[in-house]
Structure formats: structure tokens, C-alpha cells
Specification:
Number of helices: 8
Largest sheet: 7 strands, antiparallel
Helix content: 25-40%
Strand order of the largest sheet: 2-1-5-6-7-4-3
Radius of gyration: 20 Å
Distance between the termini: 40 Å
Shape: globular
Number of strands: 7
Structural class: alpha+beta
Strand content: 15-25%
Mean pLDDT: 95
């Protein structure tokens, strides 16, 4: 890998330039966005075990973070509101810190094997309502916090990216021996004395076995 910074020679600086290259969306695309969680969106969310949530702080620094649990772990409270349980993690709290300074978030819901995804945009709030948290308990352990989202936009996103990537096709998956090692990456990035790839792998395995909820 070349360590020298690459300088882009030609960049797009206006929407007019962008549209002249990409073109205009179709009438169908322009009209598919709705502002509520109708029965179709609610059914999609009820069948989704995984989502990603994007957020940014007051300065615009961005973060995208995964959330996953048993199918339907996100609860639709009304046509305008949903809540996501915040399960135990690494305690960096990037998403939640961002929400405190900038409530705007974007969600993408996934259903394994389905190419289309559901996109939801809106305003987020950190929620500690006991009755809601109790409903989201798993194995007797309730989340300490929920991320409530007031829906502003939602729409289906087409399957082109999944079809191009072959993400759901096992024939396209790498052999396990060729997959990146998270333990090795953490070891080389953190550079903590007294650690090794093996010790970090053991720490990860223990966390996955004992600290999911």
C-alpha cells in the first residue's frame, strides 16, 4: 500500500454537476417515500433481526453502528415511533453520545436472504421508560437504555447492492481460513502491553459467551 496521500484530480462540487452525470430519479423512486410506519413497514421490522444506525455529532463527524438480536427485537410503538433496545456493548456509546448532541439518525433494516432493505430516517431520543425496557428484556435482563426514533421518512431500498455483492449467496463467501482476524486487528491497532492475539481472541470468546445480554 502506498503511504503517500492520494490527491483526487477531478471532484464534483455542485448538485448540477452530479445530476448531469447520474441523471434524475424516476417518478416511482420519488413517490415511494412515506412519513409513517404503515403495515408493510411494521411487518418488515417485525421480521428483521439486524439493522445499522447512522448518526453524527454536532460537528458532523459520522458513525455507523450495527444492532442485532432476535427477530423483531425493534418494537414499533405507533405509526411514528419505534424503539431499539441498547444491549451491552463496548461502552464507547458512540451512537448515544451523538444522539445527545444531534438527534438525526438513519436506519437500515435487513432480513436475511432478502435483497431489499427498509430505510428509516428520523429523530432519536435516549429512553429509560421502565415499562418499555421491561418489554424488551431477554433472559431476564432488560436493556438499561432504549433508542426511541420519531419517524420522518421510510422507504424500501432495492436489491441491486445485494445482487452485485452476492452477500446472501454462500458460494460467494470466503473460506473461514481466509477471513480477517478481529483479534489480530485489535492487537495490532491497540498495541497494549501484555496482550497477544491469543489473549484477545480468548477475551472476545468469553465476551460473546457471557455478555450478550
Amino acid at each position: 500500500m502506498n503511504n503517500e496521500d492520494y490527491e483526487f484530480e477531478r471532484v464534483i462540487e455542485t448538485e448540477e454537476q452530479l445530476e448531469s452525470i447520474i441523471g434524475q430519479p424516476s417518478e416511482l423512486v420519488n413517490n415511494k417515500v412515506i412519513s409513517i410506519l404503515d403495515q408493510n413497514c411494521s411487518k418488515f421490522i417485525a421480521n428483521s433481526p439486524f439493522l445499522v444506525i447512522s448518526s453524527s455529532d454536532e460537528s458532523g463527524f459520522c458513525d455507523v453502528s450495527p444492532r442485532g438480536d432476535q427477530t423483531g427485537f425493534v418494537e414499533v410503538l405507533s405509526e411514528k415511533k419505534l424503539i431499539i433496545p441498547e444491549r451491552p456493548g463496548n461502552k464507547r456509546m458512540d451512537t448515544m453520545r451523538n444522539i445527545l448532541s444531534n438527534p438525526r439518525v438513519g436506519l437500515i433494516f435487513f432480513i436475511p436472504g432478502l435483497g431489499e432493505t427498509l430505510r428509516v430516517n428520523g429523530k432519536a431520543t435516549l429512553v429509560t421508560d421502565e415499562d418499555l425496557l421491561e418489554k424488551m428484556a431477554v433472559r431476564g435482563k432488560k436493556p438499561l437504555v432504549g433508542i426511541g426514533v420519531e419517524v420522518e421518512e421510510c422507504y424500501i431500498h432495492c436489491a441491486k447492492a445485494f445482487k452485485r455483492s452476492g452477500l446472501w449467496n454462500p458460494d460467494s463467501w470466503l473460506d473461514k481460513d481466509l477471513l480477517p482476524s478481529a483479534a489480530k486487528m485489535i492487537y495490532e491497532h491497540a498495541k497494549l502491553p501484555g496482550t497477544s492475539v491469543e489473549s484477545i481472541q480468548a477475551r472476545l470468546a468469553k465476551s460473546y459467551a457471557q455478555k450478550l445480554y
